[in-house]
Amino acid sequence: MSAQGQQFSGFTQGSREYARLLMAMFCAGMAVFAQLYSPQAALPAMTRGVYQLALMLRRFLFLRRLQVWLSPLLFGHLWLMRGDAPAP
């Protein structure tokens, strides 16, 4: 509702307000496009870093899993010699 109590029915095509609205929508679209397009040049560098991080994490998790599986095999005799071996 406007100040006079009448409902707003929109802008008429060809009016000055309609042209200003179209120009504002065009500028908003260009601003969004520019913000989405501008980091595109940096994407390969960012993905390279993410890929390296994923490889390091994968290696760490593999080595950790390997350590969990191999430590009883490699160091189980030490537990038995000390007498604090986990109960079967």
Fold topology:
Elements (H helix, E strand, L loop, with lengths): L15 H22 L5 H40 L6
Share of residues in helices: over 70%
Shape, per Cα inertia axes: elongated
What integer value in Å does the Rg equal? 33 Å
Quaternary status of these chains? single chain
Approximately what portion of the residues adopt beta-strand conformation?
Answer: under 5%
Number of helices: 2
Overall mean confidence score, pLDDT: 79
Q: Main sheet?
A: none
Structural class: mainly alpha
Q: How many beta strands in the DSSP annotation?
A: 0
Low-confidence stretches: none
What is the string of helix and strand elements?
A: HH
- CA-CA gap between termini: 79 Å
Describe the structure.
The protein has 88 residues and is mostly helical. The protein is built from 2 helices and no strands. The longest helix is centred in the last third of the chain and has 40 residues.
Features:
88 residues; mainly alpha; 0% strand; elongated
State the gist of this model.
This protein is an all-alpha fold. The protein has helices spanning 16-37, 43-82.
